[in-house]
Amino acid sequence: MAGVANPEIWPAYDYPVPLQPDDEARIAELLARMTLEEKIGQLVQADLCCVTPEDVRAYNLGSILVGGNSGPNGNDLSPAPDWLKAADDFYEASVDTTDGGVGVPIVWGTDAVHGHSNIIGATIFPHNIGLGAARDPALIEKIGEVTAKEIRVTGQEWTFAPTVAVPQDFRWGRAYEGYSSDPELVASYVGAMVRGLQGPPSNDNLLAGPYVIASTKHFLADGGTDNGVDQGDSSISEEELRDIHGLPYGPAIAEGVSTVMVSFSSWQGKKMTGNKSLVTGVLKDRMDFGGFVVSDWNAHGQVAGCTNESCPQALTAGIDMYMAPDTWKPIYEDLLARARAGTLPMTRIDDAVTQILRVKGRLGLFEAGKPSDRPYSGEYELLGAPEHREVARDAVRKSLVLLKNSGVLPLAPGGRLLVAGQGADDIARQSGGWTLTWQGTGVDNSHFPGATSIFGGLSQAVEAAGGSAELSPDGSFTTRPDAAVVVFGETPYAEFQGDRAALVLDPELTTPFETIEKLKAQGIPVVAVMITGRPLYVNPALNDADAFVVAWLPGSEGGGIADVLVGDRQGNPRYDFTGRLPAAWPLATLMSDGTLYDYGYGLSYADPISQWAELPEVDASTLAGDSRLWFSAGSPAARWSLLVAGETTGDQTRITTVPAEALGGRARVTAENYLVQEGARRFAIDGGMASVQLRNFEPVDINRETNADILLLVTMKVWDAPDSARIGAIGQDSRGFADFAMPETPDFVRYGISLKCLRSKGADVTSLTQPFVLQTEGAADFAIGEVRLGTDAEVTLPCD
Ligand code: BGC
Ligand code: BGC
After folding, report:
1. Which ligand does the CA of 708 lie closest to?
2. Which among 302, 709, 754 is the best mutation to test ligand 2's pocket, defined by most ligand atoms within 8 Å of the CB?
3. Whether the Cβ atoms of residue 220 and residue 246 lie closer than 8 Å to each other
4. Quick check: helix, strand or coil at residue 632?
5. Which of 62, 94, 233, 261 has a 20 to 30 A CA-CA distance from 267?
6. What is the pLDDT of residues 185-195, one digit of tens each?
7. E strands present in 735-779
8. Which atom of ligand 2 lies at the shortest distance from residue 710's CA?
9. DSSP notation for 35-56
């Protein structure tokens, strides 16, 4: 049967964590005393966005998390001491027994996926894909240890890591969260990371030492969805599911991983979160996983027959804890009502609570006292400590993969170095998504105290040897350099936002190709350094540059790049290139076009300098197929239309060329410059009601983006403000609008309205025919430069 696994064909393991008799006795004693309400509370995890210590006191919630966009006091950039203070507040609320409850201490989870990456000043390690290039399990264990220690400084106890995805299609925007496309390589790392984070499986009372609990995610085949679609469906066979995506769970279980997070995705059309045969049959029964299973961010709402507010199916399938960020209260009430009505088996509830209490017992939560009293708490000097940064810098050195060297490397340290490319001095960009903010956007170098950019590292290295480095993003110079480094590649992204239709850079990211060409034409040797979460078609840069280095997403220690690129005074390398490709590199824009470099490829200084055979180049400028871009450069996305409409549906004009007239002459549409010549459309309206719309006859489903806190972004300039304006979305039988003050502005401003707001106003986000509508009343004159989905608003509109 499709989507139903046969556990007996899966490998059997033994969960090595011994049951502690005193813990077991305590669990039995607690279970006997807990009310049904308290038990249900343990099964629910709320996000900091939407929960207070008072809620925890009242509902006895089992856990809180901090999602990518949340932080203490509503600020995901809160300073470290605020995190510890919040940890204390939630802990104290959880153990408060004045209402007669048992007071089970709460556990706090965070996405410390490459270091304690939500915290300003923490050590940021390379994302997993770069670590995959390093082929060094001992290094991975050290990274786990450092990460755990830094988490403990701010009072959290649980990281949603490691991601053990085995990405098979790098169009997937989360591919960089996986170590490799090779299941064996991923499997060789998982145990090391779990051990680094949790200590050995025999370890009891983790909080007495420098440890936290880990979570291997996302079970199962998050990296195996068809066409690499995030949260999509994996239509592979059960054998592939087991041998590719299931493999890393063996070592995770052998190391006693405490929690497993279930994937948003589906297998053979069935959502994992509701798949009992996999979650209970395979993971718990066959693989003997003895920790607890947590679902992903409202993923229960995607299970057939469920909503974000109600999903007993997830518990029945084997989920022990619901990640119900903003829906914890309805989920709690729904589970409670069903348990009271007797339609939810008490045995399953008790079993889930038992698993959660076991992990809490092993963690040592019952004895640890409040977070600020525990070892390492408040030792802020441990965040980004020199010895931690040294581990990260070592990881950067080991992750670099050399694809080409015609002899320009190592760079001579004494000369004049030009460092070009927009990414050269940008720590946020070299850190990627899941860094301080969810998408890794909206932060700059000032948010990374103590960190080093790629330029920073290069200039330190050459200056130490008497040379000089000049930063010039566009590659221009006044004094001719001896050599140039051009840093280019991807900009940060995380879930959904990183999905692409082809393995190419977005067109606006390819201008450094011209910089490389220009420098070459002047006879200056060029080293290309690529910041990227995945292998991409970059043949123009490979052809033109004299050397090509893949740096992946190195994180806060950009100095590691200079360590390998810049030689010593004698012209010898100080460190060699040891990184090897963690996944194959494409010959052209799709993997199906063939492979340029196989998995495992990577040169070193010892390799002879080979003759370069020119690679074929194709026009990739339209291939990225960014489905979040609805209107740009004066045109709507392919198959979409730009409309100006009046009060009645008949009164509607499709704008294809400019200048144009609409509404019987009441509105005029012209071109305006924005980013590119005539990149915007300007609308002059004489008066009355008018609306500018983007329409797609194929209804658009933006439900998953809505769930994920994404904004509808509209970049516009206003010469003459209307009397009133509203912004919204329309579906076949639904509409949702919010008021928009729309002030006059001297320049283009990027406004954002949360999709959640439009949904709360009534838009059916699963089926929109006009996903963007701007409605005005009265005379107005404004231009629209861009409409897209994203998170980087300059002004976020309120949702009254
Ligand atoms: C992601 C998880 C993450 C969780 C909490 C989800 O959307 O898929 O990887 O741990 O959010 O932020
Ligand atoms: C949160 C992330 C989460 C995502 C779920 C975002 O709003 O900040 O932590 O992973 O939604 O899709």
Report:
1. 2
2. 709
3. yes
4. strand
5. 62
6. 999 999 999 99
7. 735-739, 749-754, 768-777
8. 7
9. -HHHHHHHTEEEEGGG--HHHH
